[in-house]
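Hypothesis: this fold can be encoded by more than one sequence.
Test: take the structure tokens below, design a sequence, compare later.
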């Protein structure tokens, strides 16, 4: 090795004391957009990105379902004919689709298994069926058109289903159970009372249930007054149990014959004979609370 302080002295290295130069290579995958006609490997590069996107969408979907909890109605009542069943909002489009004649009735298997199976199956097989190199949506007319058509169909069917539900509530003059329940709970809180949505069993028993008039009642009355004759509070249909404490036999005969409340209680003068009306009125007049 040279020594001294001259700037033009030649430096000689003894041994290999040079430091290895660091590599500029990183783990960043290459940008394949710079190579026309080339694309990254489906496994694992493309598949990993798709899985990550799917996880983000799934988390967002779960957040929406948790944030907007399904309404809580009353306990199930098979005698409540005014109840309009509705699925969760994210199934409204399929609920509406199954109302159409070509997806129900004789074609219910096609509507429940065939069409949804083809749709979801095509979505699962899309990466294997659509193997084109092009990634711009306007250069992929078939895939882009099918996806756009599916989105429009889902939005349209959802809106039609919800509008029809609101129309049915208005026509039947029905208040949804969860809204009625919230109003009753609010009124109870304002009065400082407790509220329970579980309906208490009617204490009034049916009197003389073996009377032949019971068959006439079952044939003509249970459609509105329910199988157990407890009425339907949501439709403001009164119970027939205990009706003998409210109306006399003469009033019952007049009600059955001519109807009541502007047609809410239909008239049976054209469908039942006077003898049958009297038989029903006599039996109903016996329906009183036990003393």
């Amino acid at each position: 090795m040279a020594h001294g302080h001259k700037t033009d002295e030649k430096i000689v290295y003894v041994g290999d004391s040079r430091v290895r130069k660091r590599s500029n290579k990183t783990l960043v995958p290459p940008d394949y957009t710079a190579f026309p006609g080339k694309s990254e490997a489906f496994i694992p590069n493309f598949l990993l990105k798709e899985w990550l996107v799917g996880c983000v969408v799934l988390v967002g979907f779960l957040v929406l379902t948790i944030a907007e909890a399904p309404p809580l109605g009353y306990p199930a009542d098979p005698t409540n004919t005014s109840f309009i069943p509705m699925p969760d909002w994210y199934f409204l489009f399929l609920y509406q689709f199954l109302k159409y004649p070509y997806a129900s009735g004789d074609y219910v298997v096609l509507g429940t298994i065939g069409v949804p199976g083809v749709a979801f199956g095509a979505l699962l097989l899309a990466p294997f069926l659509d193997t084109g190199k092009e990634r711009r949506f306007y250069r992929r007319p078939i895939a882009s058109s099918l996806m756009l058509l599916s989105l429009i169909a889902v939005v349209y069917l959802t809106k039609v289903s919800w509008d029809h539900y609101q129309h049915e509530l208005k026509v039947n003059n029905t208040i949804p159970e969860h809204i009625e329940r919230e109003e009753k709970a609010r009124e109870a809180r304002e009065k400082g009372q407790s509220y329970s949505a579980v309906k208490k069993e009617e204490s009034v028993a049916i009197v003389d249930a073996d009377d032949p008039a019971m068959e006439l009642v079952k044939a003509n009355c249970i459609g509105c007054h329910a199988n157990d004759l407890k009425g339907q509070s949501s439709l403001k249909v009164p119970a027939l149990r205990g009706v003998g404490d409210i109306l006399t036999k003469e009033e019952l005969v007049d009600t059955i014959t001519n109807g009541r409340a502007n047609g809410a209680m239909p008239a049976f003068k054209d469908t039942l004979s006077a003898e049958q009306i009297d038989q029903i009125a006599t039996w109903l007049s016996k329906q009183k609370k036990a003393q």
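The chain has a mean pLDDT of 80. The first helix runs from residue 42 to 67.
Hypothesis status: open.
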